[in-house]
Specification:
The structure is a single chain. It is built from eleven helices and ten strands. Helix 6 packs across helix 7, helix 6 packs across helix 8 and helix 9 runs antiparallel to helix 11. The radius of gyration is 21 Å and the shape is globular. The protein starts with 14 loop residues before the first helix and ends in a 5-residue tail after the last helix. The chain is 41% helix and 19% strand. It has two domains: 127 residues, no CATH class; 172 residues. The longest helix is centred in the C-terminal third of the chain and has 21 residues. By secondary structure, the chain is α+β, with helices and mostly antiparallel strands. A hairpin with a 2-residue loop joins strand 6 and strand 7.
């Protein structure tokens, strides 16, 4: 199983990345920052519907600050979802604010409730980490998924990515009667390939969701990353390959029964071709992002050197030897699909 550092270092947003975020309308002025949410004066353990501790706490704020805080949170939701049009918030209320106790960035999760139909939505407020922002942008450009987020100083706002958590899907739904094992395993192969090419690590089953779309006679699947903290940080190559995580073993075992080596290779080539096509469409954007990332420090030098040597061995090349940053390694990795 890949080894992950117990605690990843957090890197601030530098000037080059900030300029990129402004240029692509990711940077906004917000009414509150992450630090403002730390002023809660009480908290209660949050349990799920089966009375199990979720490792989140619901936090409560002083009465003198509550109204202003809730209004600010609704304004942020309008910026995230409707380009700042606050007219959509008249029938919305902030139902709950939760704090994650185990995440590196100790994120807050805000639950928004529609008073008309009682529907819920969520968004997250986190301490901004440069590597996570690079991860979000690479996901937006390289994957079939669009990512909605905004930054403000050292605060990051992320939309909720819907889907069945991978560990829950493996335990409860993967062996269901309506499953389509070949389509599911094909999607995991493609997901594995995307993670490796863009060097996104720590993709065990708790860090991705399975998006299930019923068709008239089939089920379609898409596996989506939901945690980008380990974008290009660790030095071990296996960290960037979901196939090596023990938590993902159920789908690996399933894949060995329904996919041949030839079909796995086919799906890998298909996904690399799709990524190359996306990058050709976003040629200017990826070059601007990589210019910032290559000049940035988002991992210790030892990790860069270790991963560079591992990638040299993997691709039977010396192209990664001259890399001085994780951005350089991602750039060379993208060259393997013929786009830079």
């Amino acid at each position: 199983m890949p080894l992950i550092s117990k605690k990843k270092l957090t890197y601030p947003i530098g000037p080059a990345l900030r300029a990129y975020l402004i240029a692509y309308s990711r940077e906004h002025r917000l009414p509150i920052q992450y630090a403002d949410l730390l002023r809660y004066d009480n908290a209660a353990t949050l349990f799920d519907k089966n009375d199990r501790d979720t490792l989140w706490e619901t936090v409560y704020y002083p009465a003198s600050e509550t109204d202003e805080l809730l209004l600010a949170l609704k304004t942020i939701y309008a910026i995230l979802k409707a380009d700042g049009d606050t007219s959509i918030t008249g029938h919305l209320t902030i139902d709950r604010v939760d704090l994650c106790l185990y995440g590196n960035t100790r994120p807050f999760r805000v639950r928004v409730r529609n008073l008309v139909n009682d529907n819920f939505d969520y968004f997250y407020i986190k301490n901004a980490d440069a590597s996570r922002l690079y991860g979000l942008e690479l996901e937006h450009i390289l994957s079939p998924n669009r990512i909605s987020y905004i930054s403000s100083n050292q605060t990051l706002i992320e939309e909720h990515i819907a889907g069945v958590p991978g560990d829950m899907f493996f335990a409860r739904q993967m062996m269901g009667a309506e499953r389509n094992p070949i389509r599911l395993c094909k999607e995991f192969v493609k997901f594995n390939e995307r993670c490796f090419v863009r060097l996104l690590g720590d993709m065990h089953s708790s860090n991705f969701v399975v998006d299930i779309t019923p068709d008239f006679d089939e089920m379609y699947y898409r596996i989506r990353a939901i945690d980008f903290d380990q974008q290009s940080y660790e030095g071990r190559k296996s960290v960037y390959m979901p196939q090596y995580y023990r938590q993902n073993q159920p789908i690996i075992d399933l894949g060995t029964t329904c996919l041949t080596p030839e079909s796995v290779r086919q799906y890998q080539i298909e996904e690399r071709s799709l990524m190359a096509g996306r990058l050709r469409v976003e040629h200017t954007r990826i070059h601007e992002l990589m210019a910032a990332m290559r000049a940035d420090v988002i991992a210790p030098p030892h990790n860069v050197a270790q991963l560079g040597e591992a990638l040299n061995r993997h691709y039977h090349t010396r192209a990664f030897t001259s890399a001085r940053s994780m951005g350089d390694l991602v750039w060379e990795s993208l060259a393997t699909i013929g786009v830079n």
